[in-house]
Amino acid sequence: MNVNDFKKNVISVKTGSWSSERELKLTFPGHWRINHIKGVNLPEASVVDEIRNSFDNPIQCGQLEQILQGKKTVVIVVDDHTRPTPVYDIVAELLNRISRQGIPAENVKLIVALGTHVLQDTSHLKPKFRDLLDGRIKIVFPDVRTLKDYVHVGSTQSGIPVYIHHEYRDADVRITVSGIYPHDEAGFSGGAKIMIGLLGLRTLSKFHRKYSVTGRGRFLETPFRHELETYADIAGIDWSINIVLNHDKKIHKLWCGDFRRAFREAAEYAKSRLWVEKSNNADVIISNAYPLDTSLSVEGKSLWPFHDTPKSTRRILIASPVYSDFRIPFCESKREAIMQMIKRLTGASRIKKIYDQIRLWEEIKKDSNNKWNPEYVYFIPDVQKGVTKIGPVIGSHYAFLSWDSLMNELQALFPEDKNVAVSLYDNAPLAFPR
Q1: Looking at the domain that runs over 3-39+276-433, which CATH code has it been given?
Q2: pLDDT, tens digit, for every residue of 177-200?
Q3: Is the pTM above the cut of 0.70?
Q4: Domain assignments of the chain as residue spans, ordered by start
């Protein structure tokens, strides 16, 4: 036994966004070199003061009270269960101001911008929405599979028809609430980006296939962004709220007003603060998916630390999936839509996923090193009811459920006296490489 085995490096990280919300203590051998890449944890604002100040000083736009004057119906659009945006405090202040303008609660609707995400259990929203789920106002959960719920409001110059949810189209005033997070295609989320959650499948299928990755967090002006802003011009956004959070999902700063200008000011601010130095030469790279760690459908937003690293690098994604949610596939033609419907009805897609899991599990049983063959393995401290696994395989990746087991396997991969270099990216979905 090496004397260094008696010394330990202990790193604390968070896990379980909107569910367990607990701290993990990750222990490494004392002679390993740990680079804990956290970025800047922005201070929490005085929530009441920050919200009221930003509401009272909108950017390139009239105050909310002016916009509401003489109007009868309002929709407030918020992001869904896969995002860390703390919508409750924002919506509570909006409802107070709307009420003071004489608009009754029954004329206000909250639309959860699901897009192609599927929400199987609304109780997952409770930690994020709190008593908004108790009937205070009507909450709308769009389903892109219900084509009749989406109405054609115009077309772009490139010929893409814009279908939007009818509850959004029918409102007199449309307010959107977005978090500012690095995004592979849009540069940053926020502003008109939330329109994706309101668009019909006929629009989404044509839109999403046009664009590829343009630079996570590096650019504000992207074709993806400009196209979405065209949709927002057609469908209308009267007031846009853009939020920068800290690592604890607390509000740091708000920008309200015109959806173009408020977004750009917020994103410029985020761009100057959310970057981190990327390390490609570590022996082990760990990405903590908190605070987007409870949904496997958005795990891709935490994989950027693994890109452009040597093949020999061991890559680990920390996640705490609460449910096996999924995305509805984009269908550009009727034939494709029919094929997807058949797959759903027959369970063909699910059968294929299970088959892939079984195949990987069989390969691992033949040679345990095969668990490292996919791009990464999971470390999952909490496996919740509803998350499908075959043996220790979730999706198409091996999942370690014990940190000690994972560390034992890692140590066996390296010489006993090697000073293993580990890069641990904390809050990975909230950061981007400089």
Answers
A1: 3.90.226
A2: 999 999 998 999 999 999 999 999
A3: yes
A4: 3-39+276-433, 47-271
